[in-house]
Structure formats: structure tokens, C-alpha cells
UniProtKB/TrEMBL annotation:
Ranges of compositional bias, category Basic and acidic residues: 465-479
Regions of compositional bias (Pro residues) in chain numbering: 7-23
GO biological process terms, semicolon-separated: carbohydrate metabolic process
Protein name as annotated: Putative glycogen debranching enzyme
Gene3D superfamilies registered for this protein in UniProt: Glycosidases, Golgi alpha-mannosidase II, Immunoglobulins
Chain segments annotated as coiled-coil in the UniProt record: none
Pfam families named among the record's database cross-references: Alpha-amylase (PF00128), CBM_48 (PF02922)
Family label: Belongs to the glycosyl hydrolase 13 family.
Residues in Glycosyl hydrolase family 13 catalytic domain copies: 159-569
UniProt cross-references to InterPro entries, sorted A to Z: GH (IPR017853), GH13_cat_dom (IPR006047), Glyco_hydro_13_N (IPR004193), Glyco_hydro_b (IPR013780), Ig-like_fold (IPR013783), Ig_E-set (IPR014756)
Region feature (Disordered): 1-36, 465-492, 663-682
GO molecular function, one term: hydrolase activity, hydrolyzing O-glycosyl compounds
Length: 707
């Protein structure tokens, strides 16, 4: 019997040859970054120190390398590498660059595109990121919502941290700690009376980049605030409820659009003075490998100048860096339609390539006169970590406003009795003419607190910082807080201490919100937010750094007080005067625009008036066809009661009480729009540690009753 034939497995068919990679096309040296076009995606990067450059295409799902394509030398223009890659799906591909700095050496590590409009790899808050550049193709619908275009003198700025504003469970939002969560709080912002939010850094940063640990647990502490940018053009992905794909870009634009719809402007706190690359010990992410000496300041020995105390200092006035920073601002103003910028450590932007301040820094001149930025508010933090203080001297070009720290400390020292008795505060309540005489009051952003330092409640509760949780042995944070704990360090159940603290908080708020200039509130100060004495909570991503919204109910009287003060400011143009008040009395006016008084009218310089500040603000049109607008403020920093005689009100009006901080909460204010209370007849009784505001209302028969 014959054996059956042996079955053999046919040899496998050879795989068909891979289709040749599509030939790359010329790019565009004038369009840095990644730009989708009809022909594909154009990639452009500038590096005069690179001999050759590669584009690395990465899988969008897991970050694996798909292809590496060398930029053709024939498409290079000057120091700019550019090409167009056809057939790319921006949703499926991320990218990076590699630079080769001399022939025969291997290309370097993967680099982020300095012009990347979004980054992948940092979607999960608190996890060490593995960043990749994303290609953004955006067709966002702005729904014809216009910019509010609020005049600077009418602004009320509200500084907030996007994550901390809604991260606490009491925020009761669907997406806590995100752009979407903040959007849910827009009705609260409108009811409060603010019309401009200043967002602490929302440009991509690595929150895991902090060398300190929690001394109680040993756990790593985060860089919660985000003053350490990784990318100048990309929004923080972990701040989005949908952090994937186009989610962060779309969600931040939705937030800006809906704030605008509510009549609220948006200012971004931008950190252009240093980057997360740090010094020679830090990571090489992008700029260091592309053109180190252009992007960073160096000492004579080649080491990094550390004028920011972060490891490096951006070389802001080098032409290459200047172009990058200006493009960054244009991007946020045009693509995200923000209304302005607050510049962290802005004096760094005045420094030349040797690190010394310039008389006319090219970057500031370019920002000030750039047509794309023409309607943007520009706010400088006018001091840096090296000690350069340009308050009142920041190069303004007729555009820039400044955080007025002189106002902050004048109010604090006056109210705590540690100042000069009122002379300094009199200058600040006059609009700081010694600082901003030619520029006008609107150049002064007046503040009591900011993210740096004590909260307003802690300013009245602590004489010393309590920063042990930051892991720096309590040695960090501002040393001079001009604070007073009212006799007890920290929490107290003493009714007298609590009453005095409440008065001091309302005293400070009333001075802030009746002063000429641009007032700035820090989120939560309106209802007594505390950081438990921590005056540098940059690493506290917890209940210390989050807003506890239950305090809005606990301290409802204080919240109502702030709302009423903001309503008063909105109702009285005399409190929002944009220009310096003339010293003389204009023809036909009963008073000058601003006058100082003491216990008796026109006796503000009397030595007996020490510890007392009494000011009268008056305005009327030159033709006197409209009702005059007149407000009188008296503040007493001494512990005893004083009798103050205000000047007589303008003819046909009577003085009526708006606020008296010595009155019990709930009885301390007469909101605008409510019927005026009793008219003042005789002297004003000014209690110790209190502030009183009177408003002139048209006289009515029989309204002269003693207050």
C-alpha cells in the first residue's frame, strides 16, 4: 500500500514592500511651530546652533516613535529648519524635534517645540509628565461674543487659582479644579461685582517639579501655583475637564467666551522671566538645546544668571527671544481673546544681555506698540527676586499698570498702627501721585493681598508666618507682613479679638474699594479665606490652598459688605477718577477734587490728627448741569473714639451714612439703591479702629436726624 503523500506547508508569502514614505515638501520659515495646511502639516523650528534637525513623529495614543524625518537642507532658510509632511492626521500624531550640533555626533534628546500650541503627556494632575508636542487645528465658535472693553479705571480685578478656586468639595461644581469648574462659578463672580478675573498661570507647567517634601509624611510636594513654565503657547492640560486631544484648548476658550458674555474680562498671569529648564542641573526640554545663549542670561564664566531664584533667567531682550515672547502674547490675545496680561517679575523683562536694566527695553517698547496687543491691559509686577524694585518707575509707554505694593503696605501699617500716622496712606488714597502723577490713577493696581503672603483673614490673625508644611523649615515666604493678630496668634474664641479682626478686615476692604486706581481682590478674601498662617502656599494642593466655600455662608455678612462696597464704587464715578485730581478748586466747585481734613475741616496736617485720615472726594461737570458726586471717608487707627467734623456737604445735599465698620455685622452698611439712612447732623463719632464713609444725597425735608 502506498503511503499518503506528505503535506507540506507552503512557504509564507513575502510581505508586500512598505509604500515609500511620502516625499516631504517645502515648508514656510515664517510660520514657526506646527501648522496644518491643505498640503499637509508644516513644521518650522529655529536653531542657529544646530548642524541638522530631525522631526520625530510620535503615536498619539502611547507616545511611541513612528518615524524620524530629517529636515532637508535645501528647505532650510538661514537658521530656520522647515518642511511640510503630507498626509498626516493631526489627531493621530504628536511630534518632537532632535538637534545635531556637529557633524558625526548623534542627534540629541527629544525636544518640545517652543511654539507648540498644546502638549500631551501631562493630562493627569500630579503624575510625572512625559511631554509631547501636539498639532492643533482649531475652528472654535466664538458665537460673536465681543470683548467687554472695560475702561481701566472701571476695572475690579479678582485674582484666582484655576484649580484651587473649585477643587474643594464645598465648591459644588461638576468638574472641580478645572476651567469648566470655574465656568460654573461665573454667576457668583457677577453677583460679587468684579468685572475682571486674573488667572494665575495657566500656561503648561509641571506640578511635580518641586524638590521639597512634606515634613509630616515625606511625600513629595507639588509646584501647585505653576510659576515654572514648560511651554509658552500651550494651556495647562490638567486644568481641563477633558484633557485629551483638543480639550484643553477648547475648554479654556469656552471659559473666556462665557466670561466675556457675562461682561467679565480675562487677564493671564504670564511667567516670561524663567522656564522649567532651570540651570545646568535641570532638564533639557527645548530652548536650552535650540539656542541656549539667546534664550537665557549667562554670567561671564558661562553659568546661568539666576536673577529669578529659579535657576535661570530669560534673556528677554535678545532679538530671538524677544520675537518668541512677543509671538506668545499675540497668540493668547488673538487665539484665546484674552484681555490682558499680568507679568510676573516684570523687571526681568527690562534687563539687557548683560543682566543690567535698560533705560528703554526693546521688548517692553515692542509690546507697548504692537497693534495686535493694542487693546490689552498690561500689568507689571514691578519687582523681581534680585531686589530690583521699579514701583512707579516701570517703563510704561503710556500703557502699563503696576501692582502698587506701596498701597498694600501703607494700608496695613496704618491700620495696625505701625506706620507714620497716615501720611503715607494719604498719598496712596490720593491715587499715589508721587508714583503715577503723569500716568494717572489707573496706572496703580491697588491691592491688600495677592497669592504671595497672608490672606486678608490671616493678616488679622497671625504676627508670624507658619510655613512648616512647605518643607523649607519655615524659612520661605515674605518676612515683612505688616500684620497684627489682635492679641492672639491664630484661631481665637475671644469675642473681643474676633470683633477687632472683623473690623480690621472691613477697614482694609473699605479703604481699598474707595481708593482711586484699579482695586484687586484675591479670591476668598471677600468671605474670610484662611491658609492657617501659611504665607507662601505655593506647594499646598490641599485644603490650605483651596477655597472653602462654606465660609461664604459662615461669613455672609462680610461677603455682603464687599458686594455693597463694589456697588458703591460702580455707582460713584468720583471713586473711579482716571486722572490725577487737580489740587486747586475748579471754578464753580465748592471743593477741590480731593481734600484732606482732620478732626476739624481743612486740618489734615494738624499733629492732633495723627492716626486719623479724613478725605473728601468731589466731582461735578464743568457746566454744573448734573448732580455733584461727593464722598467723605474717615479712618481712625487709634483705639479710642474721636469726634470728626466733616466739611458741610454741597448745597442742597446732606451727609448720609454708607458704612461704619464699628457697627455690628449686618448693620455696618447701607447698600447703594436702598433708601438713604438718617442724615448726619453734627460731628461724626468715629470709633476706635474703624472706618466710616458718608455720601452726599439730595436733601429732603425733615431728614436732619442725628446718626
Amino acid at each position: 500500500m502506498n503511503a499518503p503523500p506528505t503535506r507540506t506547508t507552503p512557504p509564507p508569502r513575502p510581505a508586500p514592500p512598505a509604500p515609500p514614505a511620502p516625499a516631504v515638501l517645502p515648508g514656510d520659515p515664517l510660520r514657526p511651530g506646527a501648522s496644518p495646511t491643505a498640503a499637509g502639516v508644516t513644521f518650522t523650528v529655529n536653531s542657529p546652533t544646530a548642524h541638522a534637525m530631525w522631526l520625530v513623529l510620535l503615536d498619539a495614543a502611547h507616545g511611541g516613535i513612528l518615524r524620524e524625518i530629517r529636515f532637508p537642507e535645501e528647505y532650510r532658510t538661514g537658521d530656520v529648519f522647515t518642511m511640510t509632511v503630507p498626509g498626516l492626521d493631526p489627531r493621530a500624531v504628536h511630534y518632537a524635534f532632535r538637534a545635531q550640533h556637529s557633524p558625526g555626533t548623534p542627534p540629541g534628546p527629544l525636544l518640545l517645540d517652543p511654539y507648540a500650541k498644546a502638549l500631551a503627556g501631562g493630562e493627569h494632575w500630579g503624575q510625572r509628565p512625559a511631554y509631547r508636542s501636539k498639532i492643533v487645528h482649531d475652528d472654535f465658535d466664538w458665537q460673536d461674543v465681543p470683548h467687554p472693553r472695560i475702561a481701566p479705571q472701571d476695572l475690579v480685578v479678582y485674582e484666582l487659582h484655576v484649580r484651587g478656586f473649585t477643587r474643594h468639595p464645598s465648591a459644588a461644581v461638576r468638574h472641580p479644579g478645572t476651567f469648566a469648574g470655574l465656568r460654573e462659578k461665573i454667576p457668583y463672580l457677577r453677583a460679587l461685582g468684579v468685572n475682571c478675573v486674573e488667572l494665575m498661570p495657566v500656561l503648561e507647567f509641571d506640578e511635580t517639579d518641586n524638590p521639597f517634601t512634606d515634613p509630616a509624611t515625606g511625600a513629595p510636594l507639588p509646584d501647585y501655583w505653576g510659576y515654572n513654565p514648560v511651554a509658552f503657547f500651550a494651556p495647562k492640560a490638567a486644568y481641563a475637564a477633558d484633557p485629551w486631544g483638543p480639550g484643553p484648548v477648547r475648554e479654556l476658550k469656552e471659559l473666556v467666551r462665557e466670561l466675556h458674555r457675562a461682561g467679565i474680562e480675562v487677564i493671564l498671569d504670564v511667567v516670561l522671566n524663567h522656564t522649567a529648564e532651570g540651570d545646568h542641573r535641570g532638564p533639557t526640554l527645548s530652548l536650552r538645546a535650540l539656542h541656549d545663549t539667546a534664550y537665557y542670561l549667562h554670567d561671564h564664566d558661562g553659568s546661568y544668571l539666576n536673577l529669578t531664584r529659579t535657576g535661570n533667567t530669560v534673556n528677554a531682550n535678545h532679538p530671538v527671544t524677544r520675537a518668541l515672547l512677543l509671538d506668545c502674547l499675540r497668540h493668547w490675545a488673538s487665539e484665546f481673546r484674552v484681555d490682558g496680561f499680568r507679568f510676573d517679575m516684570a523687571p526681568i523683562l527690562t534687563r539687557g544681555q548683560d543682566g543690567r536694566p535698560l533705560d528703554n527695553p526693546p521688548l517692553l517698547e515692542a509690546i507697548s506698540h504692537d497693534p495686535v496687543l493694542a487693546h490689552c491691559k498690561l500689568i507689571a509686577e514691578p519687582f523681581d527676586a534680585s531686589g530690583l524694585d521699579l514701583v512707579g518707575r516701570f517703563p510704561s509707554h503710556g500703557r502699563w499698570m503696576e501692582w502698587n505694593s506701596r498701597f498694600q503696605y501703607a494700608v496695613r501699617r496704618f491700620l495696625t498702627g505701625t506706620g507714620d500716622g497716615g501720611e503715607e496712606l494719604a498719598h496712596r488714597m490720593a491715587g499715589s501721585p508721587d508714583l503715577y502723577g503723569r500716568r494717572g490713577h489707573r496706572a496703580s493696581v491697588n491691592l491688600l493681598t495677592s497669592h504671595d503672603g497672608f490672606t486678608l483673614a490671616d493678616w488679622t490673625s497671625y504676627d508670624h508666618p507658619h510655613n512648616e508644611a512647605n518643607g523649607e523649615r519655615g524659612e520661605d515666604g515674605p518676612r515683612d507682613n505688616a500684620s497684627w493678630n489682635a492679641g492672639c496668634e491664630g484661631p481665637s474664641e475671644d469675642p473681643a479679638v474676633l470683633r477687632l479682626r472683623s473690623q480690621q478686615i472691613r477697614n482694609a476692604l473699605l479703604l481699598l474699594l474707595t481708593a482711586p486706581g484699579v482695586p484687586m481682590l484675591t479670591a476668598g478674601d471677600e468671605f474670610g479665606r484662611t491658609q492657617h498662617g501659611n504665607n507662601n502656599a505655593y506647594s499646598q494642593d490641599n485644603a490650605t490652598g483651596w477655597l472653602d466655600w462654606t465660609l461664604a455662608d459662615t461669613n455672609a455678612h462680610q461677603l455682603a459688605f464687599v458686594r455693597a462696597c463694589l456697588a458703591l464704587r460702580a455707582a460713584h464715578p468720583v471713586l473711579r477718577r482716571p486722572a490725577r485730581a487737580p489740587g486747586d478748586t475748579p471754578p464753580g466747585w465748592p471743593y477741590p477734587a480731593l481734600s484732606r481734613h482732620g478732626e476739624l475741616p481743612w486740618r489734615g496736617e494738624d499733629p492732633a490728627a495723627e492716626g486719623l485720615l479724613a478725605l473728601l472726594a468731589h466731582h461735578q461737570d464743568d457746566d454744573a448741569t448734573t448732580t455733584a458726586d461727593t464722598v467723605f471717608l474717615a479712618a481712625n487707627t487709634r483705639g479710642h473714639t474721636r469726634a470728626v467734623h466733616p466739611p458741610p456737604p454741597p448745597a442742597g445735599t446732606r451727609w448720609h451714612l454708607f458704612a461704619d465698620t464699628s457697627a455690628p455685622p449686618g448693620q455696618d452698611i447701607n447698600p447703594p439703591g436702598a433708601p438713604p439712612g438718617p442724615a448726619l447732623a453734627g460731628p461724626l463719632t468715629l470709633a476706635g479702629h474703624s472706618v466710616t464713609v458718608l455720601v452726599a444725597h439730595p436733601a429732603e425735608t425733615g431728614d436732619e436726624r442725628d446718626l
